[in-house]
From TrEMBL:
Residues 17-433 form the DUF112 domain. It comes from Hominiventricola filiformis. InterPro entries: DUF112_TM. The chain crosses the membrane at residues 7-26, 32-51, 58-81, 109-133, 145-177, 197-217, 255-276, 312-338, 350-373, 379-401, 408-424, 458-483. This is Tripartite tricarboxylate transporter permease. It comes from the Bacteria.
Length: 499
């Protein structure tokens, strides 16, 4: 308790409060720009922390991290273009609400759900770190394999309107994920003599192209029009039903986000898609998903922000980062002489508790900062489509190039955008591409290592209780939507027969 009080005292120093607020403003900006991300924000500002105290340095990086994850949701709602891959499910619902004239409500839902998910994850970081770290320690390659397959089961739910096309897109995308070096043995595959393909297709350029350029092409179909007739996004007030009906949804999604954050390499994007899928399964109105569902927005945003605190749990207790930004945190902590591990909470208690308490405060302050950005961001709706399209293309190109300083990535982004537009025009879903590329490499690596562990005898993985439980969840996740679709078709036929 004494260490917690020390953390409170340090966080509420004026200089540290300004660091938190400044970091949030910068982080949200990075997240809102297509191609930029929370990882990039944290990485760029690590050198600026060299002259800071360890506690202040970690507060700055925490604010950049949380702001970056949240920031991607603003363009996702306003123009249907996710600033980060984790905001892709939000874009599906956000642009539908904008068309209904409910942009303000959508932005408030996004901000509130993000703050809730981030705050609960900070409480989990404070209270549950040792317990959850023990669970993370049990996760080996077999468990990671089932987590990846479980993630791919989302394709079934996202593509239920045209399951064949969704599965076909997912299979092709999984094949694209095999381009580059074998993740275990290291030999190159499908590189066609191009050194740029040695590492495979970079996920960020593909996702920027898929989710940005098709929207640009749609804008250019009516280049003289505007996104809306006025810059007002409408009332940002929420109904009491928006909160009461989504409370359990937000809690479930946040817990899922925290748990996924603990698993190394999972990340907020996977958490957002999985939680979106679970919300759709549990919803009494699944037909609203894709047409402006508040449940979908709350699920995705609570989960991807829940990952922020969850990813730091194994970092602080075991020295194992649960995400890319957490890996940068690890480097920054070591630079400042704060080495994560079992002794962190005793040898550097003042620093680590300053960061944890600050993490909670940052997620509360994020509501104020987020609402300011949402109000300013609404001005984007009165910009002529031709100008907005030009700006988006420039940002997409700059953001893509900035990721790896590689023009090849820009060409990949442009190609992905053209393919994405063709897919949309022919009613092929885009979301399975994102899922397959994000999960494909991890699934292949864990599958190969699991095969090596058990010398090809895969049935042995079921001797691991956690792997067996994940396998059951995976089978249920694939089968339940199919059964539900079959029942709905049967019910529809029965109704048509009665008519």
């Amino acid at each position: 308790m004494e260490n917690i009080m020390i953390g409170f005292a340090n966080v509420f120093q004026l200089s540290n409060l300004l660091v938190c607020i400044g970091g949030l403003f910068i982080g949200v900006l990075f997240g809102a720009l297509p191609g930029f991300s929370a990882t990039m924000a944290v990485a760029i500002f690590v050198p600026f922390t060299y002259v800071m105290e360890p506690g202040a340095a970690l507060l700055l990086l925490s604010a950049l991290y949380c702001g970056g994850v949240f920031g991607g949701s603003i363009p996702a709602v306003l123009v249907g273009i996710p600033g980060t891959p984790a905001s892709a499910p939000t874009a599906l619902e956000g642009k539908a609400l904008v068309r209904k004239g409910e942009a303000g409500r959508a932005l408030n839902l996004v901000t509130l759900a993000s703050c809730f998910g981030g705050f609960v994850s900070s409480v989990a970081l404070l209270v549950c770190a040792p317990l959850l770290a023990k669970i993370a320690k049990m996760v080996g390659q077999p468990e990671q394999m089932f987590v990846a397959i479980f993630g791919l089961s989302v394709v079934v739910m996202l593509s239920q309107d045209n399951l064949f096309k969704g599965l076909m897109v997912a299979v092709v995308s999984l094949l694209l994920a095999t381009f580059g070096q074998d993740p275990v043995e290291g030999f190159p595959r499908f590189t066609y003599g191009l050194s740029q393909l040695t590492g495979g297709f970079s996920v960020v350029p593909v996702l920027i192209g898929l989710f940005s350029l098709p929207e640009v092409f749609k804008m250019l179909e009516d280049p003289l029009g505007k996104m809306a007739e006025s810059g007002k996004v409408g009332s940002m007030k929420l109904k009491i039903e928006d909160i009461t009906h989504n409370m359990f949804n937000a809690i479930r999604s946040t817990v899922l986000g925290v748990l996924i954050g603990i698993v190394p390499a999972a990340g907020p994007d996977i958490a957002a898609f999985l939680s979106y899928n679970e919300a759709k399964k549990a919803s009494k109105h699944p037909e609203q998903f894709g047409n402006g569902s508040a449940e979908g927005i709350v699920a995705a945003e609570a989960a991807n922000n829940g990952v922020t605190g969850g990813s730091l749990i194994p970092l602080l207790t075991l020295g194992i980062p649960g995400s890319a930004p957490a890996a940068i945190f690890l480097g920054a902590m070591i630079i400042h002489g704060v080495r994560p591990g079992p002794t962190l909470f005793t040898q550097h208690a003042d620093t680590v508790y300053t960061m944890i308490i600050g993490f909670a405060l940052i997620n509360l302050l994020m509501y104020i900062v987020g609402m300011i950005y949402c109000k300013c961001g609404s001005l984007i709706l009165v910009i002529p489509k031709s100008i907005l399209a030009t700006v988006i293309v420039v940002l997409a190109v700059v953001g893509t190039f900035a990721t790896n300083k590689n023009m090849f990535d820009v060409y990949v982004m442009l190609g992905a955008g053209i393919i994405g537009y063709i897919m949309l025009r022919n009613d092929f879903p885009i979301s399975p591409v994102a899922l397959a590329l994000l999960l494909g490499t991890n699934m292949e690596k864990s599958l190969s290592l699991t095969r090596t562990m058990y010398e090809g005898q895969f049935y042995m993985v079921f001797t691991r209780p956690l792997a067996a439980a994940l396998a059951i969840f995976t089978v249920f996740s694939f089968v339940f939507p199919l059964v539900k679709i079959a029942k709905e078709k049967k019910k529809k036929k029965a109704e048509e027969g009665q008519a």
